[in-house]
Amino acid sequence: MKRYAVALGTALLSYAMAAPQVSPQRIIVNPVPTNLEVSVWLDKEGSTPAYTPGENVKIYTRVNQDAYVYLFNVDPNGQVDMILPNKYAGGGNFLKANITKQFPDRNDPFEYEISAPYGVNKVLALASKTPLNLNDIARFQSGQGNGFAEVSVQGQNQLAQKLSIIVKPIPQDNWITATAFYNVVSGFVPPVQRYDDVRASNYPGARVSVQNRKNDRITLEFTTTDSANTVWDFYQRDLENQGYRLTSLNQKHGDYEARFTRKGGQEDDTVTVKLKFKNKGRYSLELRW
User: Which residue ranges does the record assign to the DUF4384 domain (predicted)?
Assistant: First the structure.
């Protein structure tokens, strides 16, 4: 019994001191469970909504506990912009629990307009229970022409490395991140379908057909040259952007079966997802709720 307690204590200590993880998809991830939650999403539905240059975009974020939220945009060329906090009227980054923050704020004297380069942008939301010193990443300059900080890092890897150093001194269960994605395109915007209370984006560039539809499920089929891992990642983000959390996942030979849950009214909403690779780039996706 005593030896078991020592081993458990060592494991917990190792877990608690785990370093922040740099992620190709999500930029930076806290590997330690935390009660703090943050969400970030855009004003179009889908896991990677498409925008064309000249469109205006709105970004939303929300926390389940009072926290300071920092928002960064990383474009396909690696340019990093810190969009929250800023010096405009709605640029404060302290958020009260369960209150949605919009960027740009309704009182801000500008719109956030989409422009090239084309490709996928990532919006990183980092929430912390205490304010962070980001001077090694971005600084507000006196006499600058706008209300945004001047960013000194380039690319998501530099951003992730600097943030890893910044969050290291604070208790590791006091911060968390979330990432949203959007695609700047020259005209093609993949449509979004709603099935009962579940949304599913048509896979970009693929013609999606409904093969089977019942009261509690839908089966879609489409063809793409993308790998099963890429397709799965797309639909996992699609559900996570609707507030669902992955609770179980089984993967075998390019097939995925997973369960997602979301806080509902008296009972949690549950969705079971099955992605199957058939042949020659053909996939079937079943959503059951």
Answer: 51-131
Residues 6+ apart with CB under 8 A from 3: none
- Whether a cis peptide bond, with omega within 30° of 0, leads into 171 is no
Closest by CA to 148, choosing from 137, 164, 133, is 137
Instruction: Report the CATH architecture of 192-288.
Output: 2-Layer Sandwich (3.30)
Alpha helices for the chain (secondary structure H) = 2-16, 155-167, 228-240
- Could you report the per-residue pLDDT of 114-131, keeping only the tens digit for each? 888 888 999 999 999 999
The token duo for 236 is: 């996992």
pLDDT at 259 over 90: yes
CA distances from 141 to 71, 148, 170 (A): 19, 9, 27
Beta strands in 1-160 (DSSP E): 21-23, 27-29, 38-42, 50-51, 59-63, 67-74, 80-84, 94-95, 101-103, 119-128, 138-139, 150-151
Fold of the domain spanning 19-184 = Immunoglobulin-like (2.60.40)
Predicted local distance difference test score (pLDDT) of residue 3: 38
CATH 2.60.40.2550 in the chain is located at: 19-184
What does the pLDDT read at residue 196?
Answer: 58
In the predicted model, what is the mean pLDDT of residues 186-196? 57
**Mean pLDDT in residue range 195-222:** 76
